[in-house]
Write a structure and sequence with these properties.
Layout: E1 5-12, E2 19-24, E3 35-36, H1 44-56, E4 58-71, E5 100-112, E6 120-125, H2 136-146, E7 152-156, E8 174-175
Parallel strand pairs: 1-5, 4-7
Antiparallel strand pairs: 1-3, 2-6, 4-5, 7-8
Length: 178
């Protein structure tokens, strides 16, 4: 059993209040916030700066943590199988999506520093008119940032997975005290 995948992303907003989204792979993938998985251990703010520049060619400065988003086919709080050692992960059905933990930052846009890589489509979108095909983390983080929230902890399901009956629902964010 391996641990969750760690990723970083940034909410970059232009002067008109639009959010920068990117789509990799020529249109068959969903729109998402710019970012990605760090290739080596580094602090989250340095990782988001590097990942956004690699993906978009833009220099950004992280200024606030919007939240930490846990994307999993298994809700937090679901018990591990009977007889499992304390702290064991829940029993997941075969083919369940991997756990992903995403640190999402608000970032000040420093304007383009280089051309985005080939295969990465970039577009500005109004927060209240995001494309239908955005990732669950993108939709939740943009809503949280637009509402002015910081330090949010959210447990999200990938689209197309069911929430297990009797478990906590992800709709209500937990806002950590400041």
């Amino acid at each position: 059993m391996s641990g969750p995948t760690w990723a970083v992303a940034a909410i970059v907003v232009d002067d008109a209040g639009r959010v920068l989204l990117c789509r990799q792979g020529g249109g068959e993938r969903r729109w998402a916030l710019p970012g990605g998985r760090p290739r080596r251990p580094e602090c989250p703010t340095a990782a988001v700066t590097a990942q956004v520049r690699r993906e978009t060619g833009r220099r950004v400065e992280p200024v606030d943590l919007v939240g930490i988003y846990h994307l999993s086919g298994s809700p937090c709080g679901r018990p591990a199988p009977a007889g499992s050692p304390p702290g064991s992960p829940p029993d997941l059905p075969p083919g369940s999506p991997p756990d992903v933990v995403v640190h999402v930052f608000r970032a000040v846009d420093g304007r383009p520093a280089a051309e985005p890589p080939a295969g990465c489509a970039l577009a500005w979108h109004r927060p209240d008119a995001l494309p239908d095909d955005v990732t669950p983390v993108t939709r939740a983080a943009v809503a949280d940032a637009t509402a002015g929230r910081s330090g949010v902890l959210r447990d999200l399901r990938p689209e197309g997975t069911r929430t297990v009956p009797g478990t906590r629902q992800p709709e209500a964010p937990h806002v950590a005290p400041s």
